Task: inverse folding
């Protein structure tokens, strides 16, 4: 066990509430044409190191009394491309976290990565620093499709990185895949899926590409590329759900599949409305019944943290969650999960009768085969997951 972690079999820790930590790393080697996450190409050589110093400053400024009753059981380095952090920088951040928070002995530490940025040496050192879950962005195993997305890696780079990660001791790996890519066909998507499952990863995340305004792809003349039709995209998703289930993957969330017991602990916190603290520019938190986020501006964030500005001045949002908000969020997030909503648990949490309030609105969807009721649980079917947004909008008065 790494020296930073505590043995959480100690009784006292059992009483602590679990907490997740998200660290946003806003740099990429090159911006992908479809991406609307907050990330930039570093504008100066020392910008990453400056950001690391700010992140560590952000951690050390957290009031210890606010977090002493919590046990951190997940840390997630997301971005951006956090695999651009050197292992030494990663280690410093994890040490800083271990000095501020109590980390559980089995704390899940995930690193999102781009295969073109990984080396055998960096993988071994990340592992040594405590990273025990790796998420690698493949998106597609088709070179032409990767070019359409302007990804910086090839399928070959991915394959190499995946094997090197296994050799470095990563036994919990997620692969990101995408459907709905320009030029993609049903068959080419299925070939990418076969390529990914052929590697026997513990987890797969499969997302549909959304063309967002404000991205280079969004600004492109639509006559210059061909997207799969909506009907083909639906077939891709349903075939993916079907084949992954047959291979023993648990379809536990709309876009996420895992081997038994390998669900992403960190992301599950979001869907279960559990607390997490986000650190870094544009990072979101849900803690002590408040949702807040830091400004999406690297320069403002770094200058503010490094000059000791109160954190409240670096917030982009800060809102206390009312009981109504909590109920709406719970419904929206829980229905993303295959487990769905248990009416008994709902009654315990909110003191309200889910069936009396929502069953009349769900009835037409049950009839259409988009929602099902099993015992005391309401959940979306795979067809329902395809149209989850419209069902949720209908269910909850916005
Ligand atoms: S690597 Fe990921 S975060 Fe970076 S630009 Fe591409 S999609 Fe966006």
Result:
């Amino acid at each position: 066990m790494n020296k930073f972690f505590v043995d959480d079999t100690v009784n006292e820790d059992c009483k602590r509430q679990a907490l997740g930590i998200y660290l946003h790393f806003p740099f990429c080697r090159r911006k992908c044409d479809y991406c609307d996450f907050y990330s930039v190409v570093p504008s100066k050589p020392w910008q990453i190191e400056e950001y690391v110093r700010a992140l560590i400053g952000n951690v050390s400024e957290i009031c210890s009394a606010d977090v002493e009753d919590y046990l951190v059981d997940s840390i997630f380095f997301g971005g951006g491309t956090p695999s651009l952090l050197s292992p030494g920088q990663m280690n410093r951040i994890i040490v800083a976290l271990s000095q501020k928070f109590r980390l559980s002995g089995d704390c899940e530490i995930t690193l999102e990565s781009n295969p073109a940025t990984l080396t055998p040496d960096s993988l071994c050192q990340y592992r040594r620093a405590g990273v025990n879950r790796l998420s690698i962005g493949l998106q597609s195993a088709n070179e032409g499709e990767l070019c359409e997305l302007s990804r910086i890696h090839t399928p070959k780079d991915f394959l190499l990185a995946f094997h090197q990660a296994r050799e470095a001791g990563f036994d919990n790996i997620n692969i990101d895949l995408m459907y709905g890519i320009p030029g993609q066909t049903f068959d080419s998507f299925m070939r990418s899926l076969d390529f990914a499952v052929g590697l026997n990863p513990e987890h797969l995340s499969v997302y549909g590409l959304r063309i967002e305004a404000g991205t280079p792809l969004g600004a492109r003349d639509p006559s210059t590329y061909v997207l799969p039709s909506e009907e083909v995209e639906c077939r891709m998703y349903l075939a993916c759900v079907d084949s992954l289930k047959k291979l023993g993957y648990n379809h536990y969330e709309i876009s996420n599949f895992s081997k038994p017991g390998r669900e992403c602990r960190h992301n599950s916190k979001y869907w279960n409305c559990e607390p997490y603290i986000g650190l870094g520019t544009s990072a979101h938190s849900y803690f002590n019944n408040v949702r807040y986020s830091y400004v999406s501006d690297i320069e403002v964030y770094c200058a503010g943290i490094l000059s000791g500005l109160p954190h409240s001045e670096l917030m982009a949002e800060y809102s206390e969650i009312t009981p109504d908000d909590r109920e709406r969020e719970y419904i929206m997030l829980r229905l993303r999960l295959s487990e769905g909503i248990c009416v008994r648990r709902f009654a315990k949490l909110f003191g309200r009768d889910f069936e009396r309030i929502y069953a009349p609105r769900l009835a037409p969807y049950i009839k259409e085969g988009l929602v099902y009721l099993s015992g005391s649980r309401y959940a979306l079917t795979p067809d329902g997951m395809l149209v989850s947004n419209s069902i949720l909008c209908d269910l909850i008065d916005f």
The pocket of iron/sulfur cluster is lined by residues 28, 31-32, 35, 37, 39, 79-81, 114 (CB under 6 Å). The radius of gyration is 21 Å. The first helix runs from residue 11 to 14. The domain at 11-271 is CATH 3.20.20.70 (TIM Barrel).
